[in-house]
Design brief:
By secondary structure, the protein is an alpha+beta fold. Helix content is about 70%, strand content about 10%. It has eleven helices and six strands. The strands form two sheets. Strands 2-3-5-6 form a four-stranded antiparallel β-sheet, with no helix packed on it. It has a two-stranded parallel ribbon with strand order 1-4. Helix 5 packs antiparallel against helix 6, helix 5 packs antiparallel against helix 11 and helix 8 packs antiparallel against helix 9. The N terminus is likely disordered.
């Protein structure tokens, strides 16, 4: 009796816990982006790079530790001990001139900008994968639905053919369509599994039993000047390159100053004779002359960093930012309008036309071939609508990367 109860409880538990019986969780794009920002490994790497640059900035501004030299002196044949104390603080010329402080500020600034840009890239990457997963899920359901519809039409055509109203050939047409659509649905499902896996890697959760909501976005702003003004204050590629050049120039300035001027250390010393009768005080300076090592390695690294940054700037110099933003804005706006038009205007009309044609077929007012042709047009338009949305999301992401921020932030 006890064993029977245990198995009954286990069965009830499985029914409520097993994903096969569990109700699907619904997630929006904003929820998935939030999860991605919390768990994405790219952001942890970006945080590490940010901390590394801040550590370098801190190291750049810190003074070298002072040196304290203490000698206990005892004259031969005499009692008592004397003491010699010497305190030296090493200093570099770049610390006196303020170049190191400027370099540290530049490092902190570029670290913050790079971190913000990485966050934007993660948001856009998540948005693209989310949209792909939603599109593939919708396409799979679309093919399965149309396969079922083709089976129903096949039966209707057979009945009509049995009454001599329709050619039996039309039955084979819908039968083949049903088989083809189910095969296509399986292929889409295979692709969907890959995209869900990629999305899971970004967010650290499974999407096998999750229903994704259709992504929605605000309209693309039409004022190009407003977009340009927004871009000039954001962490985009152009501003990153500009700040990398400034950082490299600051680094090279520090390296050159430390190579040209000797490192010096103000000294304070005190001396007391063993018998305590003589005491002396003094100040001085210790110089480290850059004779053999003129900071050559650091100057080469700084020059290489500056050359790379300038080469990137040259690449973008022939592409005026205003022109690029205007082109991308028009592209994103046109593609979003096309996608919205498909879902709001085009598809409802085609769906209504297909319903009416099927109804006319049942009443003997339309041929089976007409039904098939209208349905093919509808199916083609459904696929085009999904592709249009994907293109709109990609165009939007490209514009946002050029701007350095989300369109929702533009004011």
């Amino acid at each position: 009796m006890k064993k029977t109860l245990i198995w009954q409880l286990a069965l009830v538990t499985l029914l409520f816990v097993s994903p096969a019986f569990a109700e699907q969780t619904s997630l929006t794009l904003d929820q998935v982006i939030k999860e991605s920002l919390q768990k994405n490994t790219s952001l942890f790497r970006a945080q590490r790079d940010y901390d590394d640059k801040l550590a370098t900035a801190t190291e750049t501004t810190l003074l070298d530790n002072p040196e304290l030299q203490v000698d206990v002196v005892r004259d031969k044949g005499q009692g008592g001990t004397g003491t010699d104390l010497e305190f030296t603080q090493p200093l570099k010329f770049s610390q006196i001139s303020g170049s190191r402080a400027g370099y540290a500020n530049a490092l902190s600034n570029i670290a913050s900008m790079e971190q913000k840009y990485e966050v934007l890239k993660v948001i856009n990457e998540t948005t693209v994968l989310y949209t792909q997963a939603w599109l593939l899920s919708e396409r799979k359901k679309l093919y399965e639905s149309y396969a079922d519809d083709a089976d129903k039409m096949k039966k209707l055509v057979k009945e009509s053919a049995g009454q001599g109203q329709t050619s039996p050939a039309a039955s084979h047409l819908f039968s083949s369509d049903a088989s083809k659509l189910r095969v296509d649905a399986n292929a889409v499902d295979a692709e969907l599994r890959q995209v869900r896996t990629d999305l899971a890697r970004l967010t650290g959760r499974s999407y096998q039993h999750v229903r994704l909501e259709r992504p929605s976005f605000i309209a693309v702003p039409t004022d190009t000047e407003r977009l340009l003004a927004f871009a000039q204050t954001q962490s985009n590629v152009r501003n990153l390159i500009k700040n990398r050049i400034q950082t490299a120039e600051q680094r090279l300035s520090v390296a050159r100053q430390d190579a040209a001027m000797p490192e010096f250390g103000p000294r304070v010393f005190y001396s007391r004779s063993p018998n305590g009768d003589d005491q002396s005080y003094g100040i001085g300076v210790a110089l480290r002359i850059p004779l053999w090592n003129q900071n050559d390695a650091e100057r080469k690294r700084a020059n290489a960093e500056l050359r790379q940054a300038k080469s990137e700037a040259d690449l973008y110099s022939g592409l005026p930012q205003q022109d690029v933003i205007a082109e991308l804005q028009q592209s994103a706006s046109a593609l979003q309008e096309r996608a919205d038009s498909y879902f709001d205007n085009i598809l409802p009309g085609y769906r209504k036309s297909y319903e009416m044609t099927r109804s006319m077929f049942r009443q003997g007012q339309a041929d089976a071939l007409e039904v098939w042709q209208v349905r093919e047009k509808l199916l083609s338009s459904e696929n085009e609508a999904l592709d249009a949305l994907a293109q709109a999301v990609n165009a939007r992401g490209t514009l946002e990367l050029e701007l350095g921020g989300k369109l929702e932030e533009v004011k």
